Amino acid sequence: MSKQTFKNSQGVHQGRSIKIAIAGAGNCSSSLIQGIYYYKDVAGNDELVPGLMHNVIGNYKISDIKPVCAFDVDKRKIGKDLSEAIFALPNCTKIFCKDIPKTGVKVKMGPVLDGVAPHMEEYPEDKRFVISKEKPVDVAEELKKSGAEILINYMPVGSQKATEYYAKAALEAGCAFINCMPVFIASEQQWQEKFEEKRLPCIGDDIKSQVGATIVHRILSHLFAERGVKIERSYQLNFGGNTDFMNMLSRARLKSKKISKTESVESQLARRLSYDNLHIGPSDYVPFLKDNKICFIRIEGRKFGNVPIELELRLSVEDSPNSAGCVIDLIRLLKLALDRKVSGALISSSAYFMKHPPQQFTDEKAREMVEEFIKGQRER
Ligand SMILES: NC(=O)c1ccc[n+]([C@@H]2O[C@H](COP(=O)([O-])OP(=O)(O)OC[C@H]3O[C@@H](n4cnc5c(N)ncnc54)[C@H](O)[C@@H]3O)[C@@H](O)[C@H]2O)c1
């Protein structure tokens, strides 16, 4: 795909930089970093730019986002410049911007904790994580040294300890926090209070992708409910060939992912469905699909006259750019919160961009709330 160029528009403030740190230089990080360079010339909100929800947020352009620090545990990534690490195996997402200049950020060894699932050992090295023998750094110290303002958590599903470690390091280093995965931080009162005490904002939990399985399932469920159709049964089956799907083959790691995905859809139904009648989750790992995720949604209901209605849908998406399309906005929304000295969980951004926010709203309402937040009409 050819690189697009975008007109500079008049009157846009040259925003200061937003220094970000990344925990987990996997596929989602790869898409995010590629996106920062792919969209580096975007300025001004007067042009419709394919792939973006907001060209500029507040005064912040995409080119204001600067990676300053990164952590991983994989031997093929540790010690490499972030611009190379994001293309190292087992990352397998689509490369849409290959010429990334050196960032000067060397990926540092984080503590492994529960970040790497034991069952991954059964798979070939080029498909799974391979733990480096490097000694882990003190993440909080490294964050402080780098001057990072925001830490983005991209730990694999099921990494409860690792996510808590990175959240604590963010608190200690004075960094705001974006939690892209389903360990509950921004949606948990005790963590919200910790961020409030440190006067830091956070957003979470578990990214609701740009146009992914969750938002499509939510909007269709909401449509059925609004139009008076009683939903009786529904499923959402997902599979893909990246390390995220390989990791999720371990059912023991899936508890919070199931909660996050199921509650996200359930919150849009007129009435809750029993366990037997709603099935949502990652379903299998198909290596050749790489970062392409396939999702099947089925909704069964009863409309006027108790007459049945069925909907079947197949969605095929490259998984990681789908999350990066949201994180590119979240970074700038969180920076606005930092500028405005707002602390604790950001309700509007979490509701619009996360599957398991502190408070659920319809996507239409949450979007409205985000726009109000950007204009300064809403505190959080
Ligand atoms: N792709 C999406 O649209 C999407 C949507 C919602 C949530 N998520 C979640 O975001 C997270 C990241 O997804 P991804 O596709 O980038 O995963 P990935 O498997 O590609 O990347 C995870 C990275 O974390 C590293 N890692 C493991 N343990 C670590 C530790 N202790 N410290 C530092 N690094 C460690 C791995 O080496 C790997 O590089 C996953 O939990 C995923 O479920 C993704």
UniProtKB/TrEMBL annotation:
One Pfam family this sequence matches: Inos-1-P_synth
Gene3D superfamilies: Dihydrodipicolinate Reductase, domain 2, NAD(P)-binding Rossmann-like Domain
SUPFAM superfamilies referenced in this protein's UniProt entry, alphabetically: Glyceraldehyde-3-phosphate dehydrogenase-like, C-terminal domain, NAD(P)-binding Rossmann-fold domains
One Gene Ontology term from the biological process aspect of the record: inositol biosynthetic process
Naturally occurring in which organism (per UniProt): Candidatus Nealsonbacteria bacterium CG11_big_fil_rev_8_21_14_0_20_35_11
Superkingdom of the source species: Bacteria
Protein name: Inositol-3-phosphate synthase
Sequence ranges assigned to domain Myo-inositol-1-phosphate synthase GAPDH-like in this UniProt record: 212-320
Gene Ontology molecular function terms on file: inositol-3-phosphate synthase activity
InterPro entries per the UniProt record, alphabetical: MIPS, Myo-inos-1-P_Synthase, Myo-inos-1-P_Synthase_GAPDH, NAD(P)-bd_dom_sf
Family to which the UniProt record says this protein belongs: Belongs to the myo-inositol 1-phosphate synthase family.
